[in-house]
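go over this chain:
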Amino acid sequence: MKHIFIINPAAGQGKELETLRQEILRETRLRLIEAVIHRTNARGDAERTAARYAAELKGEEARFYACGGDGTLNEVINGAAGYQNISVGMIPIGTGNDTIRNFSPPEKAFRSVAAQLTGTPRQIDLLRCRGRIDGINVDRFCVNMINNGFDCNVVARAAQLKERPFLAGSAAYMLAVFEKFVRREGIRLTVYGDGEKIIDGSMLLCAVCNGSYCGGGIKSAPQASLVDGMLDLNIINYVSRRQFLRFFPDFARGKHLERKDIGDLLITKKCRRVRLVPKDSESFLTCVDGEIADTSGLEVEICPSALRLIIPEHRE
């Protein structure tokens, strides 16, 4: 069985990447495993590489390891989509790494090449997204979450802030939250869930969730599960700054569903299909697994047990 490591050098630091490369070589040689290491050179290269190897394997069992952040994992999954012989693992060297937070092994287990090589594939659901994104008709998979409105604007701003020294991961995200909170940037959409119109107008944010986490550890959808065959639609109403300040600490910790006033703040629905249509504009910003894009509308459906994700071996 081949083991193919697809490394995104933009996701980590030079020394960290070399340490990872040496660990891959050491652990695979120790186990007499046939391994390939590919360093990506541009956006989309991880997807193209995964697709090329998947086609060349001709049904042979293989493991692809996305070494980067959630965006790298998204590319590898889309490149390997439709190939039942391939399992996908994630070795997190990015800044967000929200997908792995949905599973019980700690981040250090996912970072361990040895634990990945001995890990067990587990069937998880995927989100399938169709629509026009950045001027192109797309049909793609998403593993964790699609964010629109406030949280998408926060992710876009956080990406800019991460370019500054000493601002990375959750620090950049929290500063972006503060900036967008002051401006109260929301979104206007018509949202349908399983054919039913859920909301038509202004909202602070609208998230289509497979996993629970976004923004480097914000537990925005504690009720979501990657194995329940359903997606979770979360809509936060356009609230005042005072309401938001009271609400956000619970929202960040995943405790907001326990609030007595949650019915006034949040609309949540489990469904199989969601359609997002812009209102009063031709397009809106969307954030798919942490990657920002412009879309004129999206249709999202759940694909149960569509991916074999490697869960690393972990012993306390």
